[in-house]
Amino acid sequence: MISHLFKLIWNKKKAHALLIIEIWASFMVLFGLLSLIVFNIRNYSQPLGFTYENVWAIGLQSNQDTVGIPQKAQRIFQRLKAYPEVASVSRASNNFPFSSSNMNTRVDHEKRHTMVEYYIVDAHFSNTLEMPLVAGRWYRGADSVGKFKPIVINQKASEELFENENPLGKIISKDKQVIGVVGNFKGKGEFMSNQPALFEQLDENNDWNKTMLVRVKPGTDAMFEAKVVKDLSAMQAGWSVEVDHLTDSRKTQHNLTLVPVIIALIVSGFLLVNVALGLFGILNLSIARRRGEIGLRRALGATGRGISTQFIGEIWVLATFALLIGLLFAVQFPLLDVFDLQRGIYVTAMLIAVGIIYGIVTLCALFPSRQAAMIQPAVALHEE
Amino acid sequence: MITLKNIEKVYRTTRIETLALTNINLSIAPGEFISIMGPSGCGKSTLLNLMGLLDEPSAGQVQIGGEVVTQYRDRELARLRNRKIGFIFQSFHLINDLSVIDNVEIPLLYRKGDAVGASRREMAREALEKVGLSNRMKHFPGQLSGGQKQRVAIARAIVGRPDIILADEPTGNLDSAMGNEIMNILQQLNAGGATIVMVTHDETMAKQTHRLIRLFDGALVGDSVLARTDD
Amino acid sequence: MLANYIKIAWKVLLRHPFYTFITLFGISLTLTVLMVLTSFLDHLFGSHYPETSRYRSLYIQQMIQRDSARTSRNGGPMSFKFLTQYAKSLKTPERVSISTFYSTSNAYVGSRRIKLNTKFTDADFWQVTDFEFLEGKPYNEQTIAGGDHVAVITDDFKRQYFDNLEESAVGKDIEIENLHYKVIGVVKGSPVTRIFTYADVYFPYTAPKSNYQRTGFRGDYVAILLAKNKQDVPVIRTEFQDRINRIPMPAVSDGFKFDILEVPSEPYVENFIGMILDGGAGLRMLFFSLIAFILFMLLGLPAINLVNVNVSRIWERASEIGIRKAFGAPVRTLVWQFIVENVFITFIGGAIALILSFIIIKLINASGWIAYADLTINLSVFLVSVLVCLVFGLLSGVLPALRMSKLSIAEALKS
Hints:
Chain C: Residues 293-408 form the ABC3 transporter permease C-terminal domain. The complex is a heterotrimer. Chain B has helices at residues 44-51, 74-84, 100-109, 117-130, 146-158, 176-191, 203-207; strands at 2-12, 17-28, 33-37, 59-64, 67-68, 85-88, 164-168, 195-199, 211-216, 219-225. By secondary structure, chain B is an alpha/beta fold. Chain B has a single domain (2-225), classed as Rossmann fold (3-Layer(aba) Sandwich). In chain B, a hairpin with a 2-residue loop joins strand 9 (211-216) and strand 10 (219-225). In chain C, strands 5, 6, 7, 8, 9, 10 and 11 form a seven-stranded mixed sheet that branches. Chain C is elongated. Chains in contact: A-B, A-C.
């Protein structure tokens, strides 16, 4: 029976070409959309690696002031620490969690190398962001006197550089020594993919990297925030003081991901509804046109159920043709590694898209094929 | 082979009732070649549909090969049509998108179990040989003449080796030369043992059968055995 | 004759409500997406408040410094000094404005925190742009020379900062980062999508923390060059380019030695696209092919769908066509009938799309998704849509019509 259906479709391939293109195009749209969604859901399901509630990022800019910046920054650090409302303070580079800036660098170990998100943070960072260590320990102030710069890397970086070896004590890029490993660190929020990250001890004597990450005690309000800004501005006249709540920046980062996905979802959704309606109409018409054939098949021994199975079978064969072409296109993405996504994402997206396409065509064929099954053969055969 | 008892057929729409057949009693023995005649709208086709199990009588009983089909459901009716009955239509009803041999194979597709793949092909080829079209197997219906089309339809009707062949004006769309060709094939089939019921307008065609039944306004008005002219 | 065609078309539509619905759904969906999209692009790139003279403006947004080996590259906004020296002094422009992009800050009112964006500008900023002053006036050269701590705020910021909205904010004091400024004007705000003019609070460039004193090439400032008319735009570009080319190379600035210096002055669209695609030819290629693919799907899919439905429907009406042909209607008339019908339904779909887009645009404007969003269906957007409407109508009308004209009378009558 299946080969019979293939023949029916194949012999009418010219008439079916547009329909196949339509299903193919729908598949491509679905594949694109699903790749995007699967990618983001996968990322979202991976733990963030730190906590951000009640953490503020206080950005400092010295503007025209150029004298004794490190000392002044140090004084601000001490002042912040002294507030009873503050639980913990850490000094960090501008690419603090959820910020819009980022820093990358290439690091190597023996013959292996990888790009890492590069954070310059002080000894209190893991404490302030509540990052548990998987192995080793976070660096301390005293570590900086050694021959190598003490660094902490995340597990992803460890895998990229050392595979299954123990990373502790290893030297990276000639001058950095791993002394600790954290789990994930997704600095741009839940939707970011789990990238390799490297934390290097901050040199408190330089002029840069003076963002203060402050974990305040729960229940602290804007009154305190205003007081901090006032105090700090008074301490260092001419400096800019800017406070960001990590919860707010996180929302901004999420929107950067979610808004395009939602727009794509809505537009694709309407496109597919459109296609489904059209398909439904076309199938209805094709059944009206093939009443004679239906009558004949009934006369030759097809049951009503057999007729509806045939029509659903036909659209499946049609969809299979279209999907094979679609898969031919879709497979190029993982093969050519177009967007640098994991292959699993594409494969999952392909499978779901294939499933949805079969679902849609089945749904569209269900009602017309039932109509077909109810056609009276005696009437249909004598209509002409 | 076919027995109709007290058959009545009424077509109902919301407004009108049309009596298509009334009080039909008819018994057809195996190996008979019967023609049914009557003016347009007298119920010939309806009678043929009832015999072919394409339609149900409003009252009365239909027996095919000894089986009473009154209580039969779709699946059993389909099985009977497939195994016992072959259909031939005035307008051929070939599927234009399938090749000749694929058209002939269709009844075998609805048969579970005994005919698969290669053997289906073989049966279809034999049927086409019987109607003299083995050289046109790969053609499409659009490439054939009317007479050839009807021969394909006959091959399709006999491919499943049914006991009964129901032909609804098989020569109606053909010129007389082609019509005679078709009649010859039908007679051969009958000689081979098939029971044939043929609806026709054509007196000369009807005269070539064994028995002539006349219908008028849904009633059986004549049933005569004819002298054999073929031998 | 046309009226007759339309009458027939109308009857055909009513006879098959389901197919009419499918067709209208497809057309109006596509057109709505298209119109909202064009309207958004127009919002991004068109000349709108307060950059109403954008069409005759050039934007200098970044300076790119490279060494001759092209191994390192440094880019970003420029110093106030650099722009004053090379842009402000240009002869051809009507006016030149230098300002910063916005930077974020916070203000505190009691226990409330107001997030705000600040911008430092020169006095010409208010001439180059077309801000509507609801209260007060802008700062001028004299205010700036006097070094007064003044600010122009937006109506939105006024609403957030001051309790009494009836009272004029002019002359009042605002405190930002421990510094006090006197409000001298209140303007209707600019949408965040217009980064050259968007901010909540505008300061003269001489205000504290503006960093206008920087002496190197790089800094926080950008410039808008306003031409007297559109024809002057290329002239200004060349003039500015000449000046940049005359800067002796190699040079050292901010501790970075470079041999190549590029400072593009570009119309807004060019500048915007350059900003997105600052990633080399490969990325640009990928970006454009992706956009092309999305557009193709967006327009192609409904179009194929429409053509499919229409091609299928032609059979449904085959007998009607047969009768008409048998009575002597020439093929041309029938094709016309079909085209008129399609164009007609496309226009109905267009009208529905117009209403839908209007509602969606209103919703976007009201949602606060983009503050001060002013998306509109303007004439150009509408005309583009009508044109697309027509292409659609013809595309889905001509193909089935051609097919139909090939039907023989007997064949058509038979089915």
